[in-house]
UniProtKB/TrEMBL annotation:
<dbReference type="InterPro" id="IPR022764">
    <property type="entry name" value="Peptidase_S54_rhomboid_dom"/>
</dbReference>
<comment type="similarity">
    <text>Belongs to the peptidase S54 family.</text>
</comment>
<feature type="transmembrane region" description="Helical">
    <location>
        <begin position="184"/>
        <end position="205"/>
    </location>
</feature>
<keyword id="KW-0812">Transmembrane</keyword>
<feature type="transmembrane region" description="Helical">
    <location>
        <begin position="212"/>
        <end position="229"/>
    </location>
</feature>
<dbReference type="InterPro" id="IPR000095">
    <property type="entry name" value="CRIB_dom"/>
</dbReference>
<feature type="transmembrane region" description="Helical">
    <location>
        <begin position="85"/>
        <end position="103"/>
    </location>
</feature>
<dbReference type="InterPro" id="IPR050925">
    <property type="entry name" value="Rhomboid_protease_S54"/>
</dbReference>
<dbReference type="GO" id="GO:0016020">
    <property type="term" value="C:membrane"/>
</dbReference>
<feature type="transmembrane region" description="Helical">
    <location>
        <begin position="12"/>
        <end position="39"/>
    </location>
</feature>
<feature type="transmembrane region" description="Helical">
    <location>
        <begin position="235"/>
        <end position="255"/>
    </location>
</feature>
<feature type="domain" description="CRIB">
    <location>
        <begin position="229"/>
        <end position="243"/>
    </location>
</feature>
<dbReference type="InterPro" id="IPR035952">
    <property type="entry name" value="Rhomboid-like_sf"/>
</dbReference>
<dbReference type="GO" id="GO:0004252">
    <property type="term" value="F:serine-type endopeptidase activity"/>
</dbReference>
<keyword id="KW-1133">Transmembrane helix</keyword>
<keyword id="KW-0472">Membrane</keyword>
<dbReference type="Pfam" id="PF01694">
    <property type="entry name" value="Rhomboid"/>
</dbReference>
């Protein structure tokens, strides 16, 4: 495997691993600086659309992305050439960050409308619904307060606490950073499936062969499913994965127009 590693893949691996080691052991503060924040967050900087894809939450996050690059990247680099592989990786990484930011802006605007509506007309049912939609940010104690507020809907102290809780939700949601090269990796996955659709891959879990096109189709459907259900306890940026798939698919579609499919 390592003997067949290509130059761009090797350099991307070294850069990502190197930055992870620096952020984990030497300068942990760069993780917060270079992660991608909601565009209206006080922590947001435009350069984060590029830098976030070189930051990773932990070793396993880094390992999964780099292992995927190591498996699928070399053959793509040999077929497309170093320049196009680098364009694919960077375009899908940066592009998925931009698309995810648009998605986050939509979600935040929707949440802000709900909070504003509650503060104009306080109602325990509205409060409970917002808390349930954002329950991943709270411990079980919040539900004791929800029950207490529901039994005392006109209590001004409880209304004030509920309003403060919703303001805290806005603050937390608006400052959740995104990190990782998953958007770029999903661009590589869709490119591999489009260029080598019938290549047999052998899965470890479960141990079985599967064609590349079916594997990526599964990942795509699974990603769309997670975007639609929007599980509040799930901290994976599934919309960024979907963005990588879309951008990678569009790039390869145009690149393929002047050459024959390769299997």
């Amino acid at each position: 495997m390592f003997r067949n590693i290509t130059p761009i893949v090797k350099n991307l691996l070294l850069i990502n691993v190197g930055i992870f080691l620096v952020s984990a052991f030497l300068f942990p503060q760069i993780s917060g600086l270079f992660a991608l924040y909601y565009i209206h967050s006080s922590y947001f900087q435009p350069f984060q659309f590029l830098t976030y894809m070189f930051m990773h939450a932990d070793f396993w996050h880094l390992f999964s992305n780099m292992f995927g690059l190591l498996i699928f990247g070399p053959l793509l680099e040999q077929f497309l050439g170093p320049k196009k592989l680098l364009i694919l990786w960077m375009a899908c990484g940066v592009g998925s960050g931009v698309l995810y930011s648009g998605y986050t802006s939509f979600r935040m605007a929707n949440l802000q409308e709900k909070v504003a509506a509650f503060q104009v007309d306080p109602d325990p049912d509205t409060f409970n619904k917002i808390v349930l939609e954002n329950r991943g940010f709270f411990d079980r104690a919040i539900f004791d307060f929800v029950d207490d507020y529901s039994r005392n809907p006109t209590d001004q102290v409880k209304i004030s606490r509920a309003s403060q809780t919703l303001d805290a939700i806005l603050e937390i949601q608006g400052n959740v950073p995104m990190v990782g090269a998953s958007g770029a990796l999903f661009g590589v996955l869709i490119a591999f499936a489009m260029l080598f659709p019938n290549t047999q891959l052998f899965l470890l879990f479960p141990p079985m062969p599967v064609k590349a096109k079916y594997l990526v189709l599964f990942y795509g459907l699974y990603t769309i499913y997670n975007v639609l259900i929007n599980n509040p306890t799930d901290n994976v940026a599934h919309f960024a994965h979907l963005g990588g798939l879309i951008i990678g698919g569009v790039l390869v579609y145009f690149w393929k127009k002047d050459r024959n499919s390769f299997y």
